Amino acid sequence: YDNQIVFQPTVNLFLSSPENRAVYSKYIHPVDNTGCVEGDSSTYDPELAKYVALPNLYGSTVGQVCQVQVVLDARETNMAATHQYGVDLHATYIRNTPYGFLNFGGSVTKILSSKQTIVEGTDAISAIDHYSYPVSLRGRFNAGWAKNGWNVNLFANYVGGYLNDQTLSDNGFQRPFQKVKANTTYDLGFGYMVPQDSTSFAKGVRVSLNIQNVLNQAPQIVLTNNSAYDPANSSILGRVFSLQLTKAF
């Protein structure tokens, strides 16, 4: 991925060293306020005036405009690049028995490496198995039975462990990083479909009941300054039922 939209790192890095000053130069905008008169926008440096004109978006600088010497643009923007490779595996086995069709299968995704360069000129960082980054190992496995229009399917959803390095800050104290354990949830589905060769008016009707997170497993507590769980890798809804009715013509 090139030109990924990402948040800028902390602006404290922009001017922390000559090297960083060069790397982030396109996001550092010096301001020349020679002749600036507070309150008279016609005397402001055009580089600064475009930000001052939108106080609801960039914040108010009333009474301080002429003191501004530089604008550090830390908005999210197209600046990152990620290089990733891995393996996707999928397998299915179906067997016809006197008791009905049995099917077993699964899909596994394993990311072997994922490196992200936040901005050109900086070192690549690991973009895997950390909070807000992809988890390197995921899988979904199924077992099912079907006969005479009836079917039952059980699914297991696996998400591997990762590191929460965005832990909660409390009065200036950063809590230790948290190792989030691997997690497995289960889904269950029941269904019945009126056979296509039926002469009934209900031909092609399918009814299904699906239960997500059938064991009502609670999400793991993943504390950050913004949340107590990780919405990218778990759900707070618990057990969810859904009923579906479809008709094929």
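[next item in queue]
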Amino acid sequence: MHTTIPALHVGQGTHQAGLTVFPVWVDAPRIGMLDWAPASLRIAERAEGAAVDTLEAENLADRSLVALEGDLLEGGWQNRMLARSLVLAPRERRPLPALCIEQGRWGGAADHSAGGRRASLVVRYGDEAAQHRISDELERHDRQSRVWRRIDAIEQRLGRSETRSFTHQLDRQSIRVPRMIDGQRGVIIGIGGRIMGLELFCSGSGLRSRYAGIVQSAAVDARLADPVATSAERARAFARALQGRRLHGGESGDRWFEVARDDDRIAATGLGARLATPSDGAAGGPDQRGLLHLTALDRAHPLLAGV
């Protein structure tokens, strides 16, 4: 059985300086009993010695904790972003795969903080989306060099920072974050008159935990494009193209699993969940699946072909 993208409903967009944000509602049951709070994750450099691509994490919560690819982990020896989405069990400790977003610093304190800020879609994917090369298909060192190259290209356009950190671009931009609307569980991002992508969550609390971070990072990408509003029809057409698509992943039988889909126009990656049903308790019954989180990209957007 596949995980399928549910029906999506798109509301009126809010436009500011090249960025248009559309609220999204989902025809799928809410998945609860998860902790989405970034502050529930304790993050530090490795005890045996700091490494660019690995951090140590502990879930401080008594519930399973969702950590998302693109989450910013600030502090430590250099600012990083999480390289893969994952779910940590209550009180679980484990290494986190990371990508550096601050090439010019190596040294400092051991601890990091996660406050819900996000790397932008350009920083996270850039030309990977245009070239049909998402996530695990890239060697880790190649992914890192691409992230540094994208941040360097952004800084050439928007101004240099002392340590070449993407957080500098977040700190220096100012945008009013539209309020969330009752029942909203996702956002579609339009930049420069065209759809860039979507982030979708299984609950309002999930979206709320990252909402400001999504909008603020998108505002950085929007500064690279013309200040043109994106039409609601484009957003609805993107939603129609997404809904009903099957996502690959979940063959291992794990409760939480990665999902993905790549085709000529749309790339999608995220986390799925195997759901218990009233008839089977936790296992043994029909294989019902849902989405915890999904990022979907329109490959045709000019910024995803390189900045």
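[queue empty]
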